Each structure stands twice: as C-alpha cells, then as structure tokens.
Structure prediction request, 625 residues.
Amino acid sequence: MKTLQNIVRNRYLFIGDIFLIICSYVLTILMMYRVELGLTVILSSWNMVILTVFAFTGFLYMFGCYRVYWVYGGTREYLRVTAACLCAGFLTDLLSVAHPTEGFFLKESLFTTLIAMFAVVGVRMAIRIMGKIVRMALNRSQRENPKSVLIVGAGELGVTLAKDIASNTDLNYHILGFIDDDPQKQKMIIYGHKVIGNTNQIPRLVGWLKPEEIIVAISSVEPAEKKRILELCSQQPCRIKILPGIADSLEKKKSVDFIREVEVEDLLARPAVKLDNSAIQEDITDKVVMVTGGGGSIGSELCRQIARFAPKKLVILDIYENNAFDLENNLHDDFPNCDVDVVIASVRDRNRMEQVFATYRPHIVFHAAAHKHVPLMENNAMEAVKNNVFGTYNTACCADMFGAKRFVLISTDKAVNPTNVMGATKRVCEMIIQAMQTKSETEFVAVRFGNVLNSNGSVLPRFKQQIRRGGPITVTHPDITRFFMTIPEAAQLVLQAATYASGGEIFVLDMGEPVRIYDMAKNLIRLSGLKEGKDIKIQITGLRPGEKLYEELLMEEEGLKKTAHAQIYIGQPFFDSMEKLEEHLDTLKQALETNDNEAVKNAVAKVVPTYVRKTEEEQIAAVQE
Prediction:
C-alpha cells in the first residue's frame, strides 16, 4: 500500500516517463525513415511500443526510482535509474531479436533505449538542479546582511563548507573566495568561487577584500604549518574561526554546529598523540582502576580515557562531591556499560583510605589528588603538606598493603628545583614513590609534566574571564614562560607512560617548546576579535611569591632515557632510602604540630635540598620588580 502511495506521489514523473519513452521511439523512427513512412511504421508497431513502455516503467518501479525525492537526488539514485533503463533496454532488445517486426528491429530498439535513458535521467537531473536553484534563491532572500568570509583551504573540507553555506540559512555568509597553497588550484573556480591566492598573500587579500571573518578549513596539514597559517590569520583585523576535520564534522548535523572560534590550543602546533592501545588495554580492561582526585581537571579526563578501555570497575575518589557527581553522570551518559563507583573521601584520612582499598582492591591507582595552586599554598603551607605529602603517603601505603599492581603519581614540573611550597611538596611525593619501590611489590612510578591548558585555576580560563570583563589581562612578568599541553593529551600520555613502568621511574612528558605567557595573552586578545592596548590592555603585576620565570622538567641528577613513545622519557631514580623518608616525614609532622606556616616551610626546605626558599623581603622585592 505504501509503495502504491509513493507511485501516486510521483504520478507526474510516472506519466512523464511514459511520454518520454514514446517520444524516444518516435524520434528513433523519424531519424531512420522518411516522415511519411515513419508514421506508417509507428502505427504498425504500436504493440511493441506499449511493451517498451511497460518494460521501462516496470524496471524503474522495481529499482525503486519512484520512491526517490528527486529534489535531493544524488549519484547513487542516478546510477539506479541508469541500471533500470539498461535492464529494460536489454529486455526490449531480446524481444526485437526474438519477434522482429517492421520498425522494431534490434537497431531501432538500441537507439530507443539510449534516447529514453538520457531523457529519463536528464529530467531527474533537471528536477534536482531546479530545486537547488530555488533553494539558493530562497536562502539568499532570507539572509540579511551576510558576513563576508574568506575560506582558507579549497580541499574537501573547504568545499563541504561552501556547499553548506549555499544551502544552509544558519550560515549567514557571503564567500569572497578560497585561499589555498596548491599551485594547481590557483585562479580555478571551485563550487562557484575562485581560488584567489595562497596563504602568504592573506595580509594583502584581507586588506583588499576586507572580509569580516576568515574560516580556516584545513585538515591534512602538519601541525607546524597549521600553526603558521593560524598565526598569520590571527594577525588580521577580522574574526578567525576554524572548521575541524571531516571526522569531527560528521558528528554534527550542519556546519554551523561545528565551526568554532580558534583557540590558543590551536597555536601550540603539537602533533596528535599516538597511543599503543593494546598495552593500555592490557593494563585496564577488566581491571579495577582507582583515580584519586577524580573530579579535578586531570583526574576527570583520566577517568574518561580509562572508561574507553572497559575496566571491570572505575573508582572515582574525591573529597569534593559536586565535580565527582557531574563526572559520574557524564560517564554514565557516554559509557553506559562502564561500572563506575564514586567514593567521597579524603586522602588525608588513613583509616578511611584503608577501608576504601579493602573494599575495592584496585589493580592500578592513578593518584591525582593534590593542592596545586602556587600562591594559595605559599600562604597555606600546612595544608599543602597535609594533603600533598601525607595524602600521597597514605594512598601509597594502602596500595602496597592491599596488593595494587601499580601506583601512578601525577607530578609536576614545579617539583624540579622548586621555589614554592607546592612544588616542594610534590618533590616529596616523588621521593615517597621512589622510596616505597624499595620495599614493595607494587610498581610505584611518577609522571611529571607542565601546565595543562584550561585546567581549573590555570592561566587561560583566567585570561578569558578578564577579557569578558573588558580587561585588563594581568601577566606577572613580560618574560615568564611555561610548558603547556592539553588536558586530553596529558591524560593519554599518563596512561601510556604507566604501561612502561617497572618501578621507581619518574616519567617526563615531552611538553614541546615553552610558551611565553605574554604572547599567549596577546594571541587570545586577537583571537577574540579585539585589539591589544585599544580594546584590552595587558597589565604587568610582578612575580607572585614562589613563582619562577621558567619551569624545568628534569633534575640534573636524574639523567634521561627514551621510551618506545616519542613523547615520553624516563628520569632515573636517585632517592631510594625508606629509612631516610621516614625521618623526613617525622620532621614534617613535628613542623605541622607547631601550626606555624613558616616553620613548615623551613621543614620542607630541610627535606628537599633543591627547594630554594626566598625570605619574605625577597618575595616582596620580586613582586615589585
């Protein structure tokens, strides 16, 4: 019944096909015979004409050609019509050979088939073209004040965008042209728009055409080249947007959903992380995995990456319930088959931690719980020691006590030659896992890396917030530099580094080149479509207590070894005395009992010889510089 309704819905096309097939036969006869004789031949072979009509319409029906909405017909549908016509022609050819009649020999049948096929396919293509013209005209009439735009990239991604702009009123753009570095495409017309130059000509083209936006639509390009193009575009007086690769685009319904603003992350020019998934899978799949500090920036991303490998159970341990609750809901939505338990507990509470470990007996523990804000910890050194040092010690002892296979500490570059309490306490944490390795069957390792973009309390969200408020952006020193990587990149490399563990190593992640914070602030202002100094000012506030101009990733004593992964290195252990560690912990406990912030800092300085502690006067002087 439904098929019949579809035929009725296409009744005009059905009637048109009958007319075209008859006309094809008449045209064939008139081409082969004189007009007077041709009319006689047509009248004498009317029965074969009816059979031809039935053959063509029958095959078109069987091939589903009357169920297609031809306004949006595509290559597959045209091939379907062509195949139906060829089958019908083959049948009529057999009939002309088996029962030849005047005017319907094989030659006439072949010509009729070809003319009918071109006519039937042509009408359907004309319907699609007319529909497209009407849609484009309607879209143009519905667009008010379209934005002028240059598209960088005339490849598959750029052409897809141009097609979507032509048919999608949500993309209120007027395309000025394509920009592409391929010499073969220069001056060519691609989907109605000219390739007007290469990326080196962007400043001149922007000055000439004055576009309101530039959309970068390139995917198959090296990170360094992409960075060059984005930096060049970001220097122009117009907004810059980026279109992700086809794989990302396919997850959306239309281009307007996935065109996004260029972010500072796009300018880092870091290659995509390549993982040995089989090794990670062996570590995690069907195992109980615990992540402490699981609600934080790194901890939550670790949980998301771990969930991809189908653990037997994922235990998220955190003291702050709101983040943990949100993460649990997100994981249930994204990984409905992953068994997730959220445990609200403090790593400081040894009894509670033993209870949790006894319940779950995790195979691998990722320890991300820590206080990490440098200025806050300078004024709250006691809390930094309690949480970072003794929280790590409690968790490590529980891992040893309950037979965990591996314990992975998330460390920081601030642990190297620290100038602040936070970094010094993280260095003590590294000493803990190296000392624990000397007496435990558990594999204790640390993974050390720098700043993570967009993590809680990091510089980038702060800059964005300051821009939204109209500025100024505050930078502590014009020459201050930091290492950066994205949150997913850091989490993925942590998982990969864990697979190389044999015990006692400090894994150091390749953070690329250090980034000047002042340059990051300037880029962010430009990417926001604003001008430095005019719309948003950058204010130098002076170094904060405990803050370095630059960070280091490796201590001189450690040396450096390569691993199988190009972005992961190993620093060799050099602290291996459990007895010495216990003395250090006693020193810190005694300092905590004084409830004196300065006494705790002095105790940390005794425990960490590389901790360079400045006096209060030196800190004030550093801030005023």
Observations:
- Residues 2-139 form one domain.
